[in-house]
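Worked example 2:
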Amino acid sequence: MITGAHDLWRPSSGCDDDCLPAAGEVPTVPVARRVLRLVAATGMLVAGVGLVLLLPVLPTRERQAAVRGWARATTRAFGVRLVIRGRLPRRRALLVANHVSWLDILAVLAVAPTRMVAKREIRSWPVVGLLAAAAGTVFVDRSRPRALPTSVGRVAETLRAGRSVAVFPEGTTWCAGDGTADCRPGGGFRPAMFQAAIDAGSPVVPLRLTYRCEAIGSTTTATAFLGADTLLRSVARVVAARDIVVTVTIAAALHPARAADRRLLARAAESAVHLLPAGGVARTRLRPVPTVTPAVAVPTPVSGRNLDLAA
C-alpha cells in the first residue's frame, strides 16, 4: 500500500512530551548564564557564515581543522561539553550514528569535519541551512522516494572522491532515554545509504552519541529534539541545562565485501551503536548474502541494484 511505503520512507519515533525531563529533574543555570550562552551561540553561528566564505581557499588540512574547531566552539557556546572516545580511521568512510538532537550535527562535525546527509527542510533553517549547503551537504527530499537512488549515488561519488560522509540512518530523532526502547524508530537503521559505502569500497564507522547530565550523574533527554518540539523550545531547554556532556564513542570500522548486502551491513552497524559495549566492535569484513527482492521497488538503478522505499 502507498501509505505503508510512505511510512517506511519517513520513519517516526514513539516519543512524546512524556519522554522529556519533568520540571526540576535537570538542574538549570541562572537566567543570566542562559542569555550569555545564547549570545555566544549566535555569535558562533554568525562566525560560521564567515567561515563558509573562507573554506574554499583553505588547503584540505586547514579546512578540516577550521570546521572541527568551529563545531567544538559552537557546541561549547550552547553549554555542552564534548567527550570523544576512540579514534577514526585515516581513510575516508561512511560515518553512521544514532539521532537524538540537532546537537548531533555539531558533535559529529567536531569529531570529523565531513559532509552530511540531511533532510531537505534543513536547507531553509536560518544560518544553519546556509552553512549546511556551503559545506556540501547531501539534502534528501523525503517527499520524493524515487529520488533516493540519486542521493545514494551522490554519497558514493563523494566517498570515491576521498571525502567522508555522515548520515543518521534511523531517519528521525528520538529521546534515547534509559528504558525507552519502544521509542526507537521502527525498522532500525535504513539500509539505503549503506549501499553507497559498498559501491565506493568504503568502510563504515558506527558512532554512538549519548547525552549525560553530570549534575545528576545520569543520561538525560533534555537535549532530545522530538517530533512535537520546536527548534526554539529545544534550544531553550539546552541552554538552560547545567553540566550537559555529549559523548561520541567511535566503534571499530566495518569493512563490507564488494558484493555485501546493505541490509546486513546496516544491522551490523546498528548493533555496534546500540547493543555492544562502549569499547566498540571488532574489525569485521562482511561476506555477501543473498539479496531479497523488495516488494516495492524504485526503478532507477544505482550501481546495478534497485533501492526500495525502505532501502
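The longest strand covers residues 204-213. Residues 17-275 form a domain with the Glycerol-3-phosphate (1)-acyltransferase fold (CATH 3.40.1130).
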